[in-house]
Amino acid sequence: MAPKSSFSRSIEELSSSIVQLAGRTTTVFIIFILILGWGISGFFFDFSEKWEMIISTFSSAVTILMVFLILKAQNKDSLSIQLKLNELVASNNTASNRLVNVEGMTEEELKVISKYYSRLSDFAKKQDTLQESHSIDEVHEDHAIKKEMEDELTDIQERT
Q1: Fewer CB within 10 Å, N or C, the chain?
Q2: Sign of CA dihedral 52, 56, 57, 62
Q3: pLDDT tens-place values along the chain, 160 residues long
Q4: What is the value of pTM for the model shown?
Q5: Roughly what angle, to the nearest 10 degrees, separates helices 49-91 and 25-44?
Q6: How far apart are CA 39 and CA 44, in angstroms?
């Protein structure tokens, strides 16, 4: 993995700090007080267009900035969670390694796997014990479910 540039690292640290700061109760309270103060100041400025434009411009700029900062934070969190889940799936002998990169699958492929897990759940309910584990790659008596899912995935991959 290539090392991040100092500019990129600085931007990431700054955005993380801003998102953490914005989520604090104190910050919400301060913003509430500022908006309340702006509303009260309207009486002194006769609720002029300039008075309205100030809050409109400020709130638009802050909203756009926060949307991108929060999106960046969510993307980073999502990726780290996905990597942790991939590690768990890859390290578990009974789990299907097909799911290691599940986030890279198409929606259609995910629906096929979801349908399989729904059927797998029905299959597991018929078992004598709830302690028994089943996975996509597990060889069990009902091969039809697995074969059907593999055929659907093959059809999807051939179409793309």
Answers
A1: N
A2: positive
A3: 555 688 888 888 888 888 889 889 999 999 999 999 989 998 988 889 988 998 899 899 999 999 998 898 888 888 888 888 888 877 877 777 777 777 788 888 888 888 887 877 777 777 666 555 555 555 444 556 667 777 777 887 788 7
A4: 0.57
A5: 170
A6: 10
